[in-house]
Structure formats: C-alpha cells, structure tokens
C-alpha cells in the first residue's frame, strides 16, 4: 500500500501536467513526460525496494533498522537517478551532453549528399538537441533572395540569433520559445552558420553557371545572326554579281568593268564584316604580342579606322595599367556599340570617349543616327550584361540633337 502511494505521488503530478499544459506539440510533450515518468517510477521502485529490504532484513537484528534504511536510500538516490536517467535517454534517443550533441549534428552534416540537405539535417538535429517545438534557419542568398530551412513550427515570438561566418552575416536562426541552454544554442548556431555559408556558396556557384550558360547562348545567337543577316546576304550578292559579270562578258570589257568595281567594293565590306566577327570573338589587339604596342587606346583607334561612318576617339587619363578583364570588357563593349552604329543607326559620325577616373573607367559611345531601333535594343542587353559581369553599370539615352549615347562605368582596382 505504501509503494502504491509513493507511485501516485510521483506519477500523479505528471498526469496532471499532461492534462493541463497546452500550446506544446503533443508528441514532444508525451515523449518528455513518458521519459520522466519512467525514470520516476523506476527510481521509486529501486529506492523503495532497498529501503524496505533493509528494514525487513535488519529489524530482527537492531531497533534502528529504519534509520539505516533511510540513510542508505538517501545515499543511493542520486547515483541511481543519474543511471536511470541515462538509460531512459538512450532508450528515447535523448542526448544531454552538449559536446555529444554538437558531434551528432556534425556527423549529420557530413553524411548529407549536399549543402542544402546538410543544413536541413542540421536544423532537425538542432531541434532535437534543444528539445524545442520548432527550429528554422533563413539563409540570405546572392541577389537578395533568401531560403528557409525549418523543422517544426517556430511560432509568433521565436528566439532569433544572427548567423555569422567570419564576420559576414549568413542569415538568422529562429527557435520556438525561450531556449533552455543558451550556451548550447550559441554553439549550435556557430555550426549552422558554417553550413549556411556552404549553402550560400553553392547557390552562388549555381547562379554563376547559369549566367555563363546564358552568356554562351547569347554569344552563339549573336554570331548566328551576324552570319545570317550580315555576311550571308553579302556573299549572296557577290555570287549574283559574279554571274551577272560572266553573262555581260559577251558585251565587251566596258560592260563588265562597273560590275567588277561593285564586286570589289562589296568584297571589301565582306572582309570588314569577317574581321569584326573575329575581333568580337577574341580581340587580337588586347591579347598577345600586340598588347604592349596598342593597348586599349590603340585598339579603339584601330576600330575607329574601319570603313563606315567617321568615328573619333577621345581618351582622358592613363590606360596602360588597366586590368586585363577591364580592357577586354571595355573593348568588346565599344566594338559592339560601334558595330550597331554602323549597321543600324544610319549615323554619319560617332564618338568613343574613354575617361580614366580614380577607381573606375568610364566609356561612352555617342552617334548622330536615328536612335535605338529594335536591333540595337537586343545588343543593349548584351552590353548591360558585359558591364554587370565586372560589377559595373550601363545606361543609354537619346541625345538632344538626335542619336544615341551609351555610357558604361567599370570598376578598376587601383594597384597597391
């Protein structure tokens, strides 16, 4: 009867809490209470058995058997409780050692197939380690986007911790309610910040691959259009002119001479178009032995000397110490802008202006043509992409006197 009363004293309050508490997840609450109930019942049974066993065996021998039993039961209470609690934790998969918890989270991360899966697994392991109703991690991705990894519900008023990796914010950690162990939460937050950094690097790499694929396809599309719309009709016209000259031979050399002159002019234009296509793929003036002789200024002046509308070049500031990537980007932007002026703008003059400023290079191409037709708008998107690849800016506008002006500013890291 006494044992039953002791069991009711231990289990009774737990049952009352099961019925009274609200707002927590039932499965987690039931697991915690069942763990405590088993430990309390087992502890009561073991201590009670020792207590009554000593009384039963020692009462015939001494009158102070009750005192001895009480002392022995009190001495055994703590070590027995610790042992029973450890056994119950192992049974329910609960770990209370913070270092083992961190090691478990680390193992879950290493076993994951990728950074995103690793962070999702680490969030789930963190929730179990903190024994919280919900844990969520929000990772700030490149481009201002964010991605959320959650396990459970964090509720309306969670505890928020910033996730920082080497002084850079990776996002934030949200934990439902008030954490029981703040030191454990800070230690797990540092591990989550490292995994969040890996997720961000993975997203940045994926974004770079997508941009490279987009750039490659745009370059292929531009090359196909240039070959089909530019060089193709020119070669077709040359073939027709050759046939016309062959037929006109019967009328004498005088009839053939104008045709041959026109063919020669069209062949020169075709050679210029082929050269522009080749230079657009790989500017020879900026790559190879010619780099030290021409540089960006010389390459732009060579570009301006090609047949077509008159193109002037104005340079302000030294250009000899520009990084190779900035030189190539500036030349390709100027080359494509001038090609658009010659093909679609119907301009008579154009001006390429290069201004070297502290920490940047400003390039502008202005013309007196008809504006920005649809063909040039497609090229404007490519020019913007080339500038933004290096972290620069691009803009175009209509000039007050007619024509279009393209302005690009590229960042330049000054030499130490």
TrEMBL record:
One of its GO terms (molecular function) is ATP binding. Keywords: ATP-binding, Kinase, Membrane, Nucleotide-binding, Phosphoprotein, Transferase, Transmembrane, Transmembrane helix, Two-component regulatory system. Pfam families: HATPase_c (PF02518), HisKA_3 (PF07730). It catalyses: ATP + protein L-histidine = ADP + protein N-phospho-L-histidine. Residues 219-286 form the Signal transduction histidine kinase subgroup 3 dimerisation and phosphoacceptor domain. Signal peptide: none annotated. InterPro entries: HATPase_C_sf, HATPase_dom, Sensor_HK_TwoCompSys, Sig_transdc_His_kin_sub3_dim/P. One of its GO terms (cellular component) is membrane. Its EC number is 2.7.13.3. It comes from the Bacteria. The keyword Phosphoprotein applies. The chain crosses the membrane at residues 37-58. This is histidine kinase. It comes from Nonomuraea wenchangensis. The lineage of its organism: Bacteria, Bacillati, Actinomycetota, Actinomycetes, Streptosporangiales.
């Amino acid at each position: 009867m006494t044992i039953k009363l002791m069991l009711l004293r231990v289990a009774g309050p737990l049952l009352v809490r099961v019925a009274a508490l609200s707002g927590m997840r039932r499965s987690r609450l039931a697991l915690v209470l069942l763990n405590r109930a088993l430990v309390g019942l087992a502890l009561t049974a073991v201590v009670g058995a020792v207590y009554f066993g000593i009384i039963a065996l020692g009462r015939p021998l001494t009158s102070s058997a009750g005192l001895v039993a009480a002392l022995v039961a009190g001495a055994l209470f703590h070590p027995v409780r610790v042992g029973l609690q450890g056994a119950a934790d192992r049974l329910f998969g609960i770990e209370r050692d913070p270092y083992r918890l961190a090691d478990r989270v680390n193992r879950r991360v290493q076993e994951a197939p990728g950074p995103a899966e690793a962070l999702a697994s680490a969030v789930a392991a963190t929730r179990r380690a903190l024994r919280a109703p919900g844990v969520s991690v929000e990772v700030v991705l490149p481009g201002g986007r964010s991605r959320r990894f959650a396990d459970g519900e964090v509720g309306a008023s969670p505890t928020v911790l910033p996730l920082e990796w080497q002084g850079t914010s990776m996002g934030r950690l949200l934990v439902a309610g008030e954490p029981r162990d703040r030191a454990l939460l800070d230690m797990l937050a540092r591990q989550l910040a490292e995994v969040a950094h890996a997720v961000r690097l993975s997203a940045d790499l994926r974004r770079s691959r997508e941009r490279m694929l987009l750039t490659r396809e745009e370059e292929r599309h531009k090359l196909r259009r240039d070959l089909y719309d530019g060089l193709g009709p020119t070669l077709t016209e040359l073939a027709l002119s050759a046939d016309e000259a062959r037929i006109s031979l019967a009328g004498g050399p005088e009839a053939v001479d104008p045709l041959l002159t026109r063919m020669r002019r069209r062949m020169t234009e075709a050679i210029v178009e082929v050269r522009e296509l080749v230079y657009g793929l790989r500017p020879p003036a900026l790559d190879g032995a010619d780099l030290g002789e021409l540089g960006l200024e010389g390459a732009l002046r060579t570009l301006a000397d090609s047949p077509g509308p008159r193109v002037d070049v104005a340079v302000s500031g030294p250009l000899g110490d520009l990084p190779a990537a900035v030189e190539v980007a500036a030349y390709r932007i100027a080359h494509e802008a001038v090609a658009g002026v010659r093909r679609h703008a119907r301009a008579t003059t154009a001006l390429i202006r290069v201004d070297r400023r502290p920490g940047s290079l400003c390039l502008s191409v202005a013309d007196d043509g008809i504006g920005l037709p649809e063909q040039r708008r497609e090229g404007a998107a490519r020019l913007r992409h080339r500038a933004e690849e290096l972290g620069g800016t691009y803009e175009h506008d209509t000039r007050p006197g007619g024509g279009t002006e393209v302005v690009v500013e590229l960042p330049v890291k000054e030499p130490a």
